[in-house]
Amino acid sequence: MRLLVWGTGSRAKELVPTLRTGATEIVAFIDSFDSGGSFSGKPVLAPGQAAALKVGSDYDKIVVASCFEKEILDSAESLGFPLSAFLPEWFFHFLRYAGRLNEEQLVRLLAVPWWYHAFEILPGIMTPGICSYKPYLLDHPLTREVSGKKVLDIGAWDGPYTLEMARRGARVTAFDIQPPDHSGFDAMRDLNGIDAAHFCESVYNLDPQRHGRFDVVLFFGVYYHLRSPLLAITNINAVLEDGGLVFVEGAVLEGASTVDAFCADNADRIANVAAMPMAYYVKDIFQDHWSNWWVPNMACLRHWFTSSGFAVEHEALFENDSRGYLIARKVGPVPPEHAVLEGARS
Q1: Tens digit of pLDDT for each residue in 26-38?
Q2: Which among 71, 134, 175, 220 is least surrounded, fewest beta carbons within 10 Å?
């Protein structure tokens, strides 16, 4: 990978040794205020001179080696630089693995617009996501023997659970509203040679006629991001084979005071109703994030599933009781919502 390095100051001096690897070559440096001469053995160009170079023929990518990144990107855009040529912030994260990655692997990882999960995408190679992969969610004996089984991973994002299930021999399908080329899913699948289908759709559209039927469904970190979680659970029931299992993980009220300021102020009230099945409607409030809607306590989470054709076989709390976990087995279809509807079906 041929690089232009924008910056000739202390930051550039610090980065030059890490940029000289078998997979990278520095073509030239760019100085916003000066040009001519050389820096670290390479020519120094003015921004206008560098803008005349062609991506793909003269260089491949640009690295910003300066604390004034925003100003540099604004200047680059005004000069006509293709912003897609600028390497993402996690370039240096992956560069430290350069000795263990070939150029094709490094380029593939760097092409991902945004990483969500932090997980081991290749042996010894970690991604720089903001959400840690939780291997303990797959430690239960019921997830250890999945060879040959059909597994659906809802909310797959970059696909760490898809990858692990595939490694265990399952036939995995991923389901997420994030396009697989925007998340790291396509990179994960390509680099590992995983034969996993991906549907870029809402769980509200999950349909056995179009998406198939499964022995196991993973439903991690999703339900509290849904305005209608019971509709999602209904659809999960529909795609599960009779006796199939769903593994569920997400935010719960029991330990919400440890992660949310409003819940911390109302911790006593939440504790007083812990045995009562209830959920807190928190649009734009819970953890100050717009994507959070309903946060149930464990009793409510359990009832969501037992009222939807499931029998709960295992449940637990993790992360200071702020995350709930349950395993439920499909024992029948979702019952009708109203007696009138039940009569109409008979």
Answers
A1: 999 999 887 788 9
A2: 71
